[in-house]
């Protein structure tokens, strides 16, 4: 049986580690490769590096960065932020990223998902979705809306529809990032995560809102998620990947304990 | 020196980097002549069997690999490399190298709860001792990404199993050939230790 995964997300700005709260108020908090190495040794199952500058000038820095990570970290990791073309995705993949995350550019032109999946495989194509709660309408019956550009621009697109559309276009995995829960430390958006996890046949990664180990337990059980993404609760040393895993293991969740 | 076969199938460099990490000298090649003179081979790969076989044939690497197996040098297949060493694959109904009797099959698609590809960390249980599996303990997990898996015809060729809606072959072997469906190069410390054992292996079961 597959283990549930704990994934640490590192926001990277010009090669430095940053952390934002509700997508604003960004500050630098250190060297991402040293942090990644620490998480790797501490049993994290996967890493995500998010290029929060998402600018074209930063592309080459990001390629060098991925090469450096790949020579030090021997577990899967993905890269996201500003991926706009098959070429961007292929370069990152060839530099050593196991998977790439697409977000805004896929909302603007959805064929990007099938193009990337065709080039590097569905298993390497992750669709990341930033989602906010809205009043259910005829256009957005699920009551959740896709927002883009780092969570600031509403799109009028129903989140549940987009998740299913992403799967049928060839995404191999989904990241469900709740804008409402992000940075609050009050727990993941369970209802949203479960709704999407139950509607698709591909793995779902829950993101946004982790504040304590119970939150991970909740989203991996009640939320039906395959993986839980964490950031600040491990970046500031409140918890380690090991303590999170020990907690989940004790409560009967299958997680990778030998590393 | 380990020769890593580059046949246009996935991220070969991650295998190269993992070899460097365990202190094993390695280089990639797609030249059949280099493979003919190799001391030790890693045959990795991600992707589909038909396109991989077409490329191997075009480059003469299919014959080079068969000869390397006959020469008795240590060979390690990874992922697609563990599937292609069998006689055939259900993926595109493809004839393969035939170094080990058996065929590659797909996970049961009728089971809707079964997520495919099988992607993530899963336990590998040793069912038959092998020098390359020395030290692997109950509960040790490795990283998998695949929709098909190898099914050797004889139990004697199955060395480890994993479970995804039922047991499937996670590692197979025959004489100087060993192959894993999981990715040792992406499996953290345990994967690196496995590669270290391969770097020291003399090819004798």
Q: In short, what is this structure?
A:
With 259 residues, chain A is α/β, with parallel strands linked by helices. Chain A has helices at residues 32-41, 59-70, 86-95, 104-108, 111-120, 159-169, 190-199, 213-221, 232-235, 241-250; strands at 5-13, 16-21, 24-30, 46-51, 77-80, 99-102, 125-133, 144-148, 153-158, 173-178, 204-207, 227-230. The relative contact order of chain A is 0.15.
In terms of topology, how is this protein built?
The complex is a heterodimer of chains A (259) and B (205).
Chain A: E1 5-13, E2 16-21, E3 24-30, H1 32-41, E4 46-51, H2 59-70, E5 77-80, H3 86-95, E6 99-102, H4 104-108, H5 111-120, E7 125-133, E8 144-148, E9 153-158, H6 159-169, E10 173-178, H7 190-199, E11 204-207, H8 213-221, E12 227-230, H9 232-235, H10 241-250
Parallel strand pairs in A: 1-4, 1-12, 4-5, 5-6, 6-7, 7-10, 10-11, 11-12
Antiparallel strand pairs in A: 1-2, 2-3, 7-8, 8-9
Chain B: E1 2-5, H1 12-21, E2 26-29, H2 32-36, E3 41-43, H3 49-58, H4 61-71, E4 75-78, H5 80-83, E5 86-89, E6 94-95, E7 100-106, E8 118-123, E9 125-126, E10 141-146, E11 148-152, E12 158-163, E13 167-174, E14 177-180, H6 188-200
Parallel strand pairs in B: 1-2, 1-3, 3-4, 4-14, 5-7
Antiparallel strand pairs in B: 5-6, 7-11, 8-10, 9-12, 12-13, 13-14
């Amino acid at each position: 049986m597959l283990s549930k995964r704990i994934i640490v997300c590192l926001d990277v700005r010009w090669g430095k580690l940053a952390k934002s709260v509700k997508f604003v108020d960004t500050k630098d908090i250190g060297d991402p490769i040293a942090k990644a190495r620490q998480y790797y040794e501490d049993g994290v199952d996967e890493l995500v590096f998010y290029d929060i500058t998402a600018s074209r000038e930063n592309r080459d820095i990001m390629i060098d960065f991925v090469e450096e990570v790949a020579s030090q970290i021997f577990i899967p990791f993905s890269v996201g932020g500003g991926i706009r073309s098959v070429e961007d995705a292929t370069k990152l993949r060839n530099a050593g990223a196991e998977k790439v995350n697409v977000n805004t550019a896929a909302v603007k032109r959805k064929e990007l998902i099938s193009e990337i999946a065709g080039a590097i495989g569905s298993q390497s194509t992750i669709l990341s979705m930033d989602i906010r709660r809205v009043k259910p309408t005829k256009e957005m019956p699920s009551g959740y809306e896709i927002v883009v550009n780092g969570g600031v621009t509403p799109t009028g697109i129903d989140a549940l529809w987009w998740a299913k559309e992403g799967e049928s276009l060839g995404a191999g995995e989904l990241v469900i990032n709740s804008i409402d829960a992000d940075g609050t430390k009050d727990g993941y958006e369970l209802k949203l995560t479960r709704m999407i996890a139950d509607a698709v046949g591909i793995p779902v990664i829950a993101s946004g809102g982790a504040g304590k180990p119970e939150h991970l337990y909740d989203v991996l059980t009640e939320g039906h998620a395959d993986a839980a993404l964490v950031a600040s609760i491990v970046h500031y040393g409140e918890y380690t990947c090991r303590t999170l895993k020990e907690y989940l293991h004790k409560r009967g969740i299958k997680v990778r304990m030998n590393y | 020196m380990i020769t890593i076969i580059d046949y246009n199938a996935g991220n070969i460099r991650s295998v190269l980097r993992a070899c460097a990490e365990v202190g094993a000298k390695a280089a990639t090649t797609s030249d059949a002549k280099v493979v003919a003179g190799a001391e030790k081979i890693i045959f990795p790969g991600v992707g589909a069997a038909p396109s991989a076989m077409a490329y191997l044939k075009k480059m003469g690497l299919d014959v080079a690999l068969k000869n390397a197996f006959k020469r008795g040098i240590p060979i390690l297949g990874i992922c697609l490399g563990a599937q292609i060493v069998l006689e055939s694959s259900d993926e595109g109904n493809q004839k393969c190298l035939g170094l080990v009797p058996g065929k590659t099959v797909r996970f049961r698609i009728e089971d809707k709860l079964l997520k495919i590809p099988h992607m993530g960390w899963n336990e590998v249980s040793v069912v038959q001792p092998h020098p390359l599996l020395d030290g692997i303990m109950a509960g040790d997990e490795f990283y998998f990404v695949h929709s098909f898996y190898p099914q050797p015809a004889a139990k004697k060729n199955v060395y480890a199993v994993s479970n995804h809606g039922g047991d499937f072959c996670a590692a197979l072997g025959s004489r100087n050939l060993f192959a894993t469906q999981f990715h040792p190069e992406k499996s953290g410390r345990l994967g690196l230790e496995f590669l270290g054992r391969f770097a020291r292996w003399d090819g004798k079961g």
